[in-house]
Amino acid sequence: MEKEGLIRVLGKGRLEIKYQASFRGEGRGSFENSGVVSSGIVNTEGISLTSNWYPSIKGLAYYKLSATVPRGFEAVSEADEISSKETSAGKEYSFSFPHPLTGIDFVAGAYKVAKENLGDISIYAYFFQEDAGLAGTYIKHARDYLEMYSRLLVPYPYKRFSIVENIQTTGYSMPAFTLLGKEVVRLPFIVQTSLGHEITHEWFGNYVYADFSKGNWLEGITTYLSDYRYEEQKGKGWEYRKKILIDYQSYVTPENEFPLRDFAERTGFASMAIGYGKGAMLFHMLRNLVGEETFYKSLRRLIENNRFRSTAWEDIRRSFEADYGKDLSWFFSQWLDRKGIPSINIEDPRSIMLKGIPSVSFKLWQEKEPFRLAIPVDIIAANGTGKKVIESDKEKQYFDIDADGTPKALVIDRNYDVMRRLQKDELPPVISRLLGDEKKIIVCSERENDIYSDLIKVFKENGFKTIKTGELRDEDIRNSSVLVLGHQNPVLSRLFAHLEKPESGFILTVRINPMNTEKVVAYANASSREEVSAVVQKIFHYGKYTTIRFERGKNVVKETAESKRGMTFDLTENVSSVMPKKSLTLEQVIDKVAEKPVIFIGERHGNYEDHKVELDVIRGLYKRGKKFAVGMEMFQRPFQEVINDYISGALNEKEFLKKSQYFRRWGFDYNLYREIIEFAKAKGIQIVALNLKGEIIKKVALGGLDSLSPEEKKEIPQDMNMADYQYRDRLKKIYGSHPPGAGFDNFYQSQILWDETMAHSAADFLKDNPGCQLVIMAGAEHITYDSGIPGRFKRLTGKEYTTVINGILDEDIGDYVIFANSVSPPFSARLGVRVLKKDDRVVIEDFSADSPAMEAGMKRGDALVQVDDWKIETADDVRIALFDKEPYESVRIKVIRRRFLFGEKELEFNVNL
Q1: What is the DSSP string of 814-825?
Q2: What is d(CA 710, CA 20) in angstroms, rounded to the nearest whole number?
Q3: In what order do the strands lie in the sheet with 773-779?
Q4: Backbone phi and psi for residue 207, each to the nearest 5 degrees, phi listed first
């Protein structure tokens, strides 16, 4: 744009400015701020001058505009009356507007003009030839909007209203007309959304002006009375309000957050979430506070008192106070002047009986400085749903509320009437969470660069950092939202295991980040570079969706993942019951599970009765002539050959225990499992080591998967599903009951690795042994609720399975629950010593109170050499030497004792067990 001018003073009160300029650029906004034009354009296609196109004064003024345009052009500006005449230079237009304006705009083009009347109002449509067929639809909808807002607010203030197609991509509203871009007007939904929004501005923005130096309130009220209102009329108001909260939580960060009063204009997603979204919610909460009738009465008062005046938030407050009759300074202050939004938390919700009346009690607390809130509460009971509104203005409060019948559930703010932070289960994984994150990463391999180059370029311009697939670390995933390019990228296998091959075209889908549920992981997949290029500019408009798919640039799928509605708490008491007379015997359970390819048995490791049940299942299958193997969590995969050698008879029992390192690698008494292993040996039943090498699991528990060496990473499964969030929550509770470790994230990764390894071990065995059944023995937490191993096994094999859980009753915990009478564990001989390895010797460090070794005369510092015929080389050897001893049996123990003056001496003791 080029400008030059001359200013002359023509006597008192008159100033003449001669000015000429050429306008060449389109001045489009960014993807975040599409529709905002920063410079004018004048060319043979048309004229669009909407910003900084003439010398202007600050504030309100009366304007007169005359313009000459080429013949065949029609021109529009702010006007109640437009006149024109033909001249030698072209067609000369004059625009008359009898009210003060904040500025003027000028648009012209080779338009086809259509007109209809609504009473004294003339409605015009200015469309280019190729879009002239849209005029009738736009005029019809404009009539409906003008009638609706004239009834809802005050009569439309002007004599004419025009819908004007613009050569630039805009969506603007000016007094008496709206300017919509060519691409915009062709979208079928615009007449039901954006057109109404711009017409609402005829009252707020073009009749009552905003004092922008004191904050822009226009977009909040306009959004509320248009975009939101249309959804509310369809019964979807709560969905729109939830979207406002999702957008705020997705795009607004501590770094870009500012008070609503400071909103001036939309500059990106964050400012839009504040100015439009939070602004609309302010008016919604105000409407709920003062009531429907007072709300609209106050808006009409505001308009009548502030016609063609610059109006500020304080004028709005005074208007509402006049009709409400109460001070509202606290309301406007907390929503306009404070950064942030409330974070509401509920603790200890429960169903109680107070003085014979069923009630619900809970603790509510707000993080940081509390807001003054009116919070809707739904109590769902047998007799229906009771609705209450509670007042909260303290950091911590306790509530008890009467219920109509036995309370079943408590729902806080079910319809999103409060501007607040959403809980995790209310917040779906959507594209806006990816786009709005402070830290966001694109991950791609070298072979994907060409296909996705356009997307990478645009996303990098919008704050994404690129990392090559092989260089991505767990820390990157944990601290960022991640976009993975190409559905076969190994990063996806590492997080979500196997993903189905997407359909053709371009697809983008978002999931919760398994390593940090506050963030998301998305993946995009495209059939070709052309598919990517056709959609890259559109993705930013689909923020509210979880999955979008395009074919040749046309959207064919847009879906949002389900999430909780409101803060929901189940109040039903978790009471399970059984009918003993109708319960199954263990033999009947075995009959029912005998045909399943895989039987998972969840045990409590230290409960001997659980292992008796496992043995009975194994014996029952053997009796029925089944071909099966036994998979055991207790053994680690590197020792499979040792197990095979023992089952075949190549090793004796003590050699087996020593070479399998059983006592070093499994913390529970071998005698709990001995009968099962001996039965398998006697009957030639194969035992499968399921577990990963303990060193790797411990290393991951301390430092995460990133801590593994390249060689160690080859030993672990390459596809792992880390996205079982219910399992994650259960593990979090377990982790919370343990002493502080290296962090839950590392603990969670180690547990997933543990489960995935066992599932892969089972799947590999069945693949190599077709037609063989498998009985899997593992801790109950690895099996209950089909989490842990079973679901992963099904993912890998597609095979059916059944679960048998020992001693824990809960809904959906397993297919069968076994309650066996408590049985004392078998005798396990103990010397009652604590030993340690010192100078290549196993030395007694201390004794228990009733130690038979101490009673026999052994002392601290004695080095154990031999127990009967078994040489003691490690601490494990002590347990190996004793595991098969009987009660009251005597063992012969050789020790070396170091004497102060006379050196070492070998001693022998008989110890009665």
Answers
A1: -SEEE-PPP-PP
A2: 69
A3: 687-691, 628-636, 773-779, 598-603, 801-806, 816-818
A4: -125, -55
Q: In this structure, which CATH number among 3.40.50.150, 3.90.1150.10, 3.40.50.11550, 2.130.10.10 belongs to the domain 588-818? A: 3.40.50.11550
Alpha-carbon distance of 757 to 720, in angstroms, equals 9
The CATH fold of domain 209-330: Neutral Protease; domain 2 (1.10.390)
The DSSP annotation for 462-513 comes to: TT-EEEEGGG--HHHHHHSEEEEESTT-HHHHHHHS--PPPPSSEEEEEEE-
**What is the model's pLDDT at position 667?**
83
Give the number of other Cβ atoms within 10 Å of residue 851's Cβ.
18
Tell me the two tokens of residue 200: 């609402």
- For the entire predicted model, the pTM comes to 0.86
- Residues 542-570 have a mean pLDDT of 95
pLDDT tens digits, one per residue of 761-771: 999 999 999 99
Q: What is the per-residue burial (b if ≥16 Cβ within 10 Å, else e) of 862-881?
A: bbbbbbeeeebeebbbbbbb
Asked if residue 485 lies in contact with residue 474, where contact means CB atoms within 8 angstroms, the answer is: no
pLDDT band at 734 (very low <50, low <70, confident <90, very high): confident
Q: How far apart are the first and last CA of the chain?
A: 100
Q: Using the predicted structure, report yes or no on whether residue 33 has a pLDDT greater than 60.
A: no
Q: Which secondary structure element, helix H or strand E, spans residue 610, and what is its range?
A: helix 608-623
- Cross-strand pairs, 806: 818
Q: In this structure, are residues 230 and 192 in contact, taking their beta carbons and an 8 Å threshold?
A: yes
pLDDT over 60 at 876, yes or no: yes
Contact present, 514 and 723 (Cβ < 8 Å): yes
What totals of helices (H) and strands (E) does the chain contain, helices first?
29, 42
Rounded to whole angstroms, the Cα distance separating 385 from 65 reads 62
* Distance separating alpha carbons of residues 405 and 379, to the nearest angstrom: 10
Digit-coded pLDDT (tens) for 351-378 = 998 888 899 999 999 988 999 999 999 9
3-state secondary structure of 674: helix
Q: Where are the domains of the chain?
A: 2-200, 209-330, 344-422, 429-559, 588-818, 833-912
Q: Which CATH class is domain 344-422?
A: mainly beta
Question: Model confidence at 66, in pLDDT bands (50, 70, 90)?
Answer: very high
pLDDT tens-place string over residues 255-312: 999 999 999 999 999 999 999 999 999 999 999 999 999 999 999 999 999 999 999 9
**Residue 288 corresponds to which tokens in the numbers above?**
């709920």
Give pLDDT, residue 326.
97
Mean pLDDT confidence for 447-468: 91
CB 873 within 8 A of CB 853: no
